[in-house]
Amino acid sequence: MSGISVKDLYKTYKGSAEPTLKGLTFQFGKGKIAGLLGPNGAGKTTTISILCGIVRGDSGEVIIHDLKQQAAHREEIKHIIGIVPQQIALYPQLSAVENLTYFGNLYGFKGKPLQQKIMHYLELFGLEKSAHKEIHKYSGGMKRRANIIAAILHNPKLLVLDEPTAGVDVQSRSMILQFLRDYNSQGASILYTSHLLEEAQSLCEEVVIMDAGKMIVQGNPQTLIHQHPDCNNLEDVFLHFTGNALRD
Ligand SMILES: Nc1ncnc2c1ncn2[C@@H]1O[C@H](COP(=O)(O)OP(=O)(O)OP(=O)(O)O)[C@@H](O)[C@H]1O
Q1: Residue 110 C-alpha to ligand 1 middle, in angstroms?
Q2: pLDDT of 169-206, one tens digit each?
Q3: Quick one: how many helices (H) and strands (E) in the chain?
Q4: Of 13, 21, 193, best ligand 1 pocket probe by most atoms within 8 Å of the beta carbon
Q5: Residue 84 in 3-state DSSP?
Q6: How confident is the model at residue 2 (pLDDT cuts 50, 70, 90)?
Q7: Which residues line ligand 1 (CB under 6 A)?
Q8: Beta-carbon neighbour count of residue 25 at 10 Å?
């Protein structure tokens, strides 16, 4: 069964001469760790935003866990998906506990069960000592970890993360990747974007490489590497398909 299905998706932003997505098509199975890869400006964030219902596509079809992404299913899909955006989506003047209580309340969680859940995740993500510290006093890696907790309080079956490991230290990165593997092993699907191809190669069962708003190639990283004898790793495959030209 399909976890995510994107069919012939088009999107042109208001005021842009060029479409950002030009007939994008791909599929990821349920329960997979999947990677959406591509050079700067390929349209990864736009795609994720449409998947999550934050941005509207102009045409095409998006199906999330067997539900069409349309107004009638938006509430249901909101509960299925957890979104970790590229930018930290936390209130800087509030503590982690205050932020997470607010996000938990948005999903209808309250009182002691919510507080226990928040403390459980703060411990899991190594933030328990900073639970009551304001977010603006957190390091970059701590903010990223807290940002992930905000997206998982409602136990989403599909976790979508936009560059969750960009700009964090090795320790935070390793912790985040281990969490993604563990969360996936409990049955959740994961979709993430990254420019770190070595990381994507080891983490993802399936990747889509997109460029200029289109899917270029999809497959299991090891299979793609073996299919191209000139390629030793996923980065070689990526360059093979997207070329060396710099992007604006
Ligand atoms: N809100 C917007 N309004 C107008 N154009 C936009 C908007 N958001 C993105 N774009 C344009 O759409 C194109 C794709 O952007 P997007 O952020 O989806 O790509 P990306 O693959 O995530 O890139 P990166 O790797 O740099 O994060 C870019 O040319 C960008 O300038």
Answers
A1: 36
A2: 999 999 999 999 999 999 999 999 999 999 999 999 99
A3: 9, 10
A4: 13
A5: strand
A6: confident
A7: 13, 16, 20, 38, 40-46
A8: 15
